[in-house]
Fold each of these.
Amino acid sequence: MSTASAYLTVAGLGVDVIYKDIKNLHISVYPPVGRVRVAAPQRTDEDTIRLAVVQRLPWIKRQRAQLQNAERQSERRMLSGETHYVWGQRYQLDVSRTSGHYSVEAKGKTLWVVTPAGTDSDGRRSTLDRWYRRELKAAVAPLMHKWQPLIGVEANKVVVRRMKTKWGSCVAHSRTIWLNPELAKKNPRCLEYIVVHELTHLLERGHGERFLELMDQFMPDWRVRRDELNSAPLAEESWS
C-alpha cells in the first residue's frame, strides 16, 4: 500500500494527514497528547480534508477531553507492582526500598523508586518525574550535538516542559526548543524524531511542502518514527 503525508492547521489544530489506497476518510485522536490524524484516500483535495475536520471539531474536542479525564483518573498510585515505561521498555515498579535520599534506578525489569520512609505517593511521583526529566535532558544533549550541524541551525535553549497536546514545540523568535518529559517513556527513536522536527522549524516555521521536504532530507524514516510515537488511537471515526 503506497502512502504520502502532509500536515495541516485547521482552526488552530495541528492535523497529520496520511494519504492511502483506501475508500473512506478516517479521523483518529491519539493519546497521550491528543494528536489528530486523518487517513484520506489518495487524491483527496485539501479543502475536503479541512471541511471534514471542521465538521468533526466537536467530536475531536470531546475525545481530547475524554483523553485528559482518563489520564487524570488512571494516574498511577505509585505502588509496587505497577507498570511503568522507560525509553520504550516496560518495567515493574518497586517502592519497597527506603533511604535518606531520593533516587530512581531501572535495573533488569524493575524500576526502583527509593525515598525516605513515610514518603507518600505524591512524593514518589515527584521523585520519578524529576528522574524522567533528568533522563530526557541527558539524552537530548548528544542529539543536539549530532543534529544541529547536520541541519545547519543552533538552538539557544532546550526546555523540558509538560505539555497537554504536544510532544515538542519550537519558539522560533527565541530559538527555544520545548520537549515533553513524557518522551522519556518512549523509544529513543521517537525523541530523535521530535528533536529533528523542532530544529527543522528553525529553518521553516510552518508544516508546508518545504518543511516536509526538509524532514525527508534530514530523516527519511521520520514518518515511521512519528507513527510509532503516536500509536494506539484513543478514538477513530470514518465516513465515505
Note: The longest helix spans residues 121-151.
Amino acid sequence: MSDDSATVHEADLSQPEDQAATLHLLNAYAMDPMGDGKPLSETARREVVPGLRAHPTTLVFLATCGGQPVGLAICFRGFSTFAARPLINISDYFVLPGHRGTGIGRALLEAIEQRGRKLGCCRLTLEVQEHNHHAKRVYAAAGFSQAVYVAEAGGSLYLTKSLS
C-alpha cells in the first residue's frame, strides 16, 4: 500500500534490512515521550527481533519514504471468543516525528486493516496513552473508538500488571 509520500509493506523479519528497520524504529518509539521515554535496553535490542520472529502471531508493517524507514506497526493476531473470529491487536505504532501529518500513519493503519480483512478478522484493537492527542485523532479518523460492549457496563479500559 502506498500514498504520495510513503510505501507500506509487511516486514519479513528473516531479512536483515527489515530487521534493522524494525529495531531502529522501535528504539525511536521507545525514546519518544509517548513511548517509554528512554532507549531500549541492550537486552531488548538483542532479543526483540528473534522474539518477534519466534512468536507465531507476529505481524510487522514498515513504512518507508525515499527508501528510509519512517513508520512501524507491530501487531499480533488474537482471537475474539464472543465473535469466534480472529482479531489483530496493534501493539506498537510509531511514525518518526518529522514524518507525522503526512499520511504515513493512515497508510500503516490501512495496511493493517487490509491484512485483517484478508485474515477474516472481526476487529482491530490498540491501546493509546491518555494524553497522546495526536495519535488519538489519527485513530479516530481511521474509525477507532473506545470499546463499549454493553452501555450499562461502561467503556473498556486497558489494564496491566507487571510480572517482572
Note: The first strand starts at residue 7 and ends at 10.
Amino acid sequence: MKILIDADACPVKDVVIEEVKDKDIQVVLVSSIAHYSLQDYPEYVKRVYVEHGADSADFKIVQLAKSSDIIVTQDYGLASLLLPKGCIVLHHKGFRYSSDNIDQLLETRHFSAMARKSGQRTKGPKAFTSEDKETFRKLFQQFL
C-alpha cells in the first residue's frame, strides 16, 4: 500500500505525512511542474511532477495507483477512475468516495457546470476549516 496525493491544492498533505511517519508507508505527492517546490520532506515522501496540462496529474495518479492504495483528491472525476481499480479514495473534507456516492457527486458537478455555462452564478466550495482537517484526520486514521 502507498498513499497518493493530488497535491496541487491539497490542504491535508501535512496531516497525511504526519500520520504515516512511524509506519512503513510511502507517500507520493503528484503535482504540476508549475507547483515545483524546494520544500524538504521526510525520506518516505516522494515528489512526482508532471507537465502543464489539464488533468496531467490526474492521469499520472491513475497510472501509479494500485488496488488498496489510498488516494487523496478533491477531484470527483479522478475519484471515479480510481474506484474501479479498488483504491480507497478520500476527499480532504473528510469523506470517502464510494460507488454509492460518486454518481451523485458527478451529476451535481455536471449540473453546476451547465448552469455556469448558461450564465448562472453558482456557489463555490465552502472554506476549508480546522474542523474539516480533523474530520479528515479521523477518517484517514481508520484506513491506516
Note: The helical segments are 13-19, 56-64, 76-82, 102-117, 130-143.
Amino acid sequence: MLRTLAVQNYRSLRRLVVPLGRLNVVTGANGSGKSSLYRVLRLLANFAGNGAVAALAREGGLDSTLWAGPGRTPRNQALALRLGFAGDEFGYAADLGIPPPAGMSSDGEPTTMFDRDPEIKAEAVWAGPVLRPATLLAERGGPVVRLRDTVGAWGMVAHTLRPFDSMLAELADPQHAPDLLVLRERIRSWRFYDHLRTDADAPARLPRIGTRTLVLAHDGADLAAAWQTIRENGDAHALADAVDRAFPGSEVHIVNQDGRFELLLRQPDLLRPIGTAELSDGTLRYLLLIAALRTPRPPELLVLNEPENSLHPDLVGPLGELIAEAATDTQIVVVTHSPRLISALENTGHEINTIELVKESGATIVRDQGLLDAPAWHWPKR
C-alpha cells in the first residue's frame, strides 16, 4: 500500500508531501489543485510504460507544467519537476529537467526537433517508506544506472539509458533487476477512471462482442462483458446487491445475441427491460462504477476522479458504500468536490484519510498540515 505521495514544481503543486491511507479522499475548492494531484498519480503510472515524458510533452513540455510562481528556480539549483511515492515495501522517485539546447548538424539543421521533451535526470527505487543510502535498490543519474544485487553489492548497468527512457520500463528483469520488475508490475496494475463515457454515443450504449473481461475498460466500452465476467468469476451476490441498493427491486440482465453482449436493466414498475441506449447518464454511470469497483481482479491502487458527476443525489449514498466496500481489497483515492459523497463515505464507518487542498500565495497546500505533519521524504540526487 502507498503511504506517501510527493511532488515538487508541478503546476500549483510547489512542494507537496501527503500521507495516504487505505481509503483517501482528495477534496478542495475549484482551482485548489485536485486535478493536478490526480495527474501526478497518472504521470507516475506512466513511468512504468515509458510514457511519462510523452505525457508531459503533450501538456506543452516543462515550460507549461512547471510551477510558475515565486521561487521557481532556487539559487544554485537546476529547474526540476520531481514526483514520487513510497509504500510499505518500495518507493520510487523521478527528477525531470530541461534538455540542453539542440545542436546543429553540418547542414545547419537542428540535430533534434524534440527539444521540448523533458529529460529524466535522476531516478531512484528503494525499499520501505523512506529513501536512505542503506535502502537504495537502484539509482540513476543521467544515462548511468547502478543496481544493488541480492547480497547488497552495487553493480553498474552495462548500457546507458536514453534521456526519455525510464529505468522501470527498460531495466526491469527477473534475473538482474527483480525488484524493478516487481515494482513495475505493481504500478502497471493501477487503475484510473475519469473518462467513463455516458454520452449518447458512448460505447457502453451499444451491443459489443463479448469476451471474458476481468477489468472494465477506462471508458466503460465493455460494460456488458465485464458485468457477465463478475457474475461468473466474481461475487455475483454482491453485484446484485449493489444494483438493488441503488435501484430497489431492479435487476441487470446480460443478453447474448450471436456473440454480442448487451446489458438490460429490468425495473419493477416497467413492462419491459431498458437497454443501455435508453438509460439516463446517471444510471449508466452508476452501473459502470459498479463494474469498476466489483472487479474480480482488484488492483493495488484504484483512482476515481469525481465519480459523482451526473449521479442523482439518491445514488451518492450507495456509491459511498460501494467505494468503502471495495477499499477492503484495494487502496482507493477518490478526487471529489462533493460534500455529499464525502459524508456518505464517512457514514460507512470506514476510516477515511481526507486530504483537503487549499491555495496559499498561489501554491497548493494541505489544509492544517504543519511542517512537522508531512511524512518524511528525500529526493534522489542528480
Note: The longest helix spans residues 34-47.
